Amino acid sequence: MTGLSPFTVQTFVPYVHVSDVQASIDFYLKLGLSLDSRFGPEGEPYWARMKRPGCDLMLARASGPIDAGQQAVLFYLHVDDIDAFRAAMLASGLQDGGKYDGTPGQAPRSGMVFEPTFPDYMPAGEVRVHEPDGYVLLVGQIGEPRSG
Asked: Would you tell me which CATH number, out of the four given (3.40.630.30, 3.10.180.10, 3.30.360.10, 2.30.30.140), belongs to the domain 12-64?
C-alpha cells in the first residue's frame, strides 16, 4: 500500500491479559517500567498501565485461564548491555533457565531468564525471558558483540 494515510497513529500499546495483575506489575517493575496507573483494590488490581520512555504496556485480569503454551504473541525489547540485563534479572529473583532448548519443562509460568544466544540477526546477544503468565520476552542488544 502506498500513499499517505488520512490519519496518524500516535501510539501502539500492547494490551495483555494476565492471571494476576499485581504479579505482572511486580515482574515488569524489574524490567525498569514504572506503574503509571491502575484500577482495583490495593494489591488486587484488575487493570494497570506500565510505562517508561519508549515503552508502554497495559495489563488486564483475564476472564479465563491462560494457557502459556498457546501464547500467540511475544515481546521484543532492546537493551544497551545484555549481560548487565541478565545479571540484573537474576539478582531480582528470576530463575536461571540455563541454555534454552525448547523443551516443555523450560516454559514455566513464573519468571525465568535464559543464557544469551548470538543469532545472526542479533550478534551482540539475545536472552529469552518468561514472565509470570508464560509470555515470552526476547531481549536483544543492538550492535556488534563486545570484545574481551
From this structure: 3.10.180.10
Q: Of residues 108 and 25, which shows the higher confidence score?
A: 25
91 three-class SS: helix
The three cell numbers locating residue 44:
488486587
Distance CA 125, CA 117 (A): 6
Using an 8 Å Cβ cutoff, are 78 and 141 in contact? yes
Question: What phi and psi values does residue 68 have, to the nearest 5 degrees?
Answer: -55, -30
Does residue 124 contact residue 59 with C-beta atoms inside 8 Å? no
Digit-coded pLDDT (tens) for 57-67 = 999 999 998 88
**Domain coordinates in residue numbering, the chain:** 12-64, 73-148
Domain 73-148: CATH superfamily, name plus number: 2,3-Dihydroxybiphenyl 1,2-Dioxygenase, domain 1 (3.10.180.10)
